[in-house]
Write a structure and sequence with these properties.
- By secondary structure, the chain is of the alpha/beta class.
- The protein is built from eight helices and 18 strands.
- The strands form two sheets. Strands 1, 2, 3, 4, 5, 6, 7, 8, 10, 11, 15 and 18 form a twelve-stranded mixed sheet that branches. A six-stranded antiparallel sheet has the order 14-13-12-9-16-17, with no helix packed on it.
- α2 links the parallel β1 and β2.
Length: about 300
Amino acid sequence: MSSHSTCRFRHAALVGKYQARGIRPILEDVAHILARAGVDVSLEEETAQNTGMTEYPALSIKEIGKHCDVAVVLGGDGTMLAIARELAPFDIPLIGINQGRLGFITDIPLKDINTILPLMLKGQYEEECRAMLEGAVLRPIDGDTCETIYEGYAINEVVVSRGATASMIELRAEIDGQFVTNYRADGLIVSSPTGSTAYAMSAGGPIMHPSLGGWVMVPIASHTLSNRPLVVSDDVTITIEIVAGRDASMNFDMQSLASLLHGDRVTIRRSAHKVRFLHPEGWNYYATLRRKLRWNEGVS
């Protein structure tokens, strides 16, 4: 039986565009593994530009969406988040190879690529889908009329926060048009279950299993101690209005939009798109938590 007939995929996009110098030899090794499995290999265009690799075709995101049926991402969780947001509309599954410390979503150790990656290419993997957030900024222009000045997607979180030198801000929060509360704080995080182990966790939010259909709203350094993290269904629309404070900003997975004005309304809802992650066979979420958060460290 030929390698083409045993491989689950036909054409892979190889991504590693945000990594430091020295990534090229590793990308070449991964490309060779893919080729030996009978997979056609292309490079995401910025990866090709940054590494100078010319032996494989360079494709734009749209071209990857049209021609590829899997993306192999080399780097950390930040690299994976960036490319996953771009590829989500094309429903392409992603395989993450971690360069450095263990990641939550880039979970194949670099030292194991020669054994694990060929097995995954043959179909020995665990697949899961993760929900995404879709956000927009609405700015009043005349009476009740607003214009949309920014739209974006997030896999981890949408954050509305104060400027670097400003004092706390005041934010009015609504869920499906129903008033919740005004937060006087450094900011407010709206996190997906995927992002519950990122910024939201450091601000005191709960860890949510990725399969849960919910978001968590976590105030950052709230002036009112009774403002606690709030878990809500993921079929609602959350609206955050800038009431007071200077230089407010928002970000999608740490991609920033600065200079929000008083009266601006940030709307956040579940995206129609999902992200598909492929993990090594036998992967489970709780084992990842134990390793990443060092639970039971020192326990025999």
